[in-house]
Amino acid sequence: MNNTTKLVMLFLVLSNTLALGYLFFDNKTHPQPPKPMEVIVDKLQFDENQQQEFAKLVHVHRKDVKSMHLSIVRLKNNMYQGLKKEIPVVNDSLLTLVANSVKELERIHYEHFMDIKNLCDSSQRTNFNELADNLGFLFQPQSPKVQKGREKLK
User: Fold this and answer.
1) Which of these, 61, 64, 66, 95, could form a disulfide with 112 (CB 3.0-4.6 Å)?
2) How far is CA 99 from the centre of its chain?
3) Which residues contact 101 (CB under 8 A, 6 or more apart)?
């Protein structure tokens, strides 16, 4: 190996070592986007009693949503069993049940937000209406667009 090749290899090893060291020893915590619950409490300026009632609503809502998600998964699994057949056929009745379950899930979400709205006093209703404009951003998977939408709410 000539000296130029040795220098290039040394440079590459050193730069890789520095890059890995920076990544490994970087103690900066990356900011987590606010949780939807926090955004709602902050945006609506709930007092302590409202926060307690809201926490109860969230507990019930999560239980209902989990149950509905499990139901949807079971229906989808039944529907996808048809893929094992030589000539797969979509089972329209199962597809309809899945669609109806998704519709029911959205109804559960809607009623949850109606319950939250009912927790608000008259001075908080304006904030709730602003929040309602952005609810679609609040409960989506974490992506840069969603994070921007959540930041708009704060």
Assistant:
1) 61
2) 21
3) 68, 71, 72, 75
